[in-house]
Amino acid sequence: xxxxxxxxxxxxxxxxxxxxxxxxxxxxxxxxxxxxxxxxxxxxxxxxxxxxxxxxxxxxxxxxxxxxxxxxxxxxxxxxxxxxxxxxxxxxxxxxxxxxxxxxxxxxxxxxxxxxxxxxxxxxxxxxxxxxxxxxxxxxxxxxxxxxxxxxxxxxxxxxxxxxxxxxxxxxxxxxxxxxxxxxxxxxxxxxxxxxxxxxxxxxxxxxxxxxxxxxxxxxxxxxxxxxxxxxxxxxxxxxxxxxxxxxxxxxxxxxxxxxxxxxxxxxxxxxxxxxxxxxxxxxxxxxxxxxxxxxxxxxxxxxxxxxxxxxxxxxxxxxxxxxxxxxxxxxxxxxxxxxxxxxxxxxxxxxxxxxxxxxxxxxxxxxxxxxxxxxxxxxxxxxxxxxxxxxxxxxxxxxxxxxxxxxxxxxxxxxxxxxxxxxxxxxxxxxxxxxx
Length: 437
What we know:
Blueprint: H1 25-33, E1 51-57, H2 61-72, E2 79-82, E3 98-99, H3 106-126, E4 137-141, H4 144-159, E5 165-168, H5 169-175, E6 190-194, E7 198-199, H6 202-215, E8 219-221, E9 226-231, E10 237-242, E11 245-254, H7 260-266, E12 273-285, E13 293-296, E14 301-305, E15 310-321, H8 329-342, E16 351-362, E17 368-371, E18 377-381, H9 391-404, H10 418-421
Parallel strand pairs: 1-2, 1-11, 2-8, 4-13, 11-18
Antiparallel strand pairs: 3-7, 4-6, 5-6, 9-10, 10-11, 12-15, 12-16, 13-14, 14-15, 17-18
Helix pairs in contact: 2-6, 2-9, 3-9
């Protein structure tokens, strides 16, 4: 379980939970005596009404978190969350579960740290086990230059109140003795460690936010694909056209990850986003091996171990534009090569399955949380690799924007017009090469 969020970041929630009882040891015992036949549904599968105060397009983690915080923090519950498939069937269930706040640029550091603090209290706030495990995130470095870059990032983190430790090779060996220290093509010289980082159960996060939002009156509407927008004579967005009919809205929030460009195009917008496939893989179940999350500094490879024992790992996006949730073999080969470079023992594990999610890659690798140029439309997009770890803060900040029409202070840099004004947040220093982010 994660630790409680410091009191400065917590909120008081005294609202009722009308449709579902709270989880507790007593509820577990009571339902065990009845053969677990009387558990209530996790959320209401609602039918759409004719209109809502706010319609959120996208029933993934970010969209559901937005609805939850609108209801709990801002007191707005006349909300519909529209999902074209089923809850948890998109990117939310297709990632590698890593949570961290080890960012070094001013536009990112405070935002991801807020997300980490929200993660640390999320299970208590949702009354739902999202399996937050703060086992640490270790980024390996393999050269003097990379060590210096990690030192700068670590110092920036610590100046902003984020934990960071720079380890030498001996400290890394003590933590992960199974790594290839003696015969590596890229010698392991040390690493940057954030002990508060770790993992969370991706689908449980979605289910927990769905349950919390539904309990507070939010309508979660599955199998409801948006096909267009309705407009007033002055051009303002007044609702959406869907496969389940027209739905009016005072405001419309778009939170659809890799489909951001498609949905925005329905409103006449062209976003600075490319969609790419990001593959992930899991091995057969093994005994506990990996203490936390480890990343390879000389290539793009990251790995952790799930509670079921599978090694969960991934690497680079596929280099072509695609809206298909599947990748191809060259990236699989590249990812496995990265794993073999730092821990050759992974070559003896059998690959169990793989999956692909669609990343909405911005040109600087950082997200967009902003009002659209079209009145009544609000954008939450461009999460690149950072979507899952940002889920709580993304929902918190997007809810603030939708409720107040003002950006939240920690997300103020995520403006859409930064690509026109030159105020990039280029965390990896790779500019407009989206395939390298």
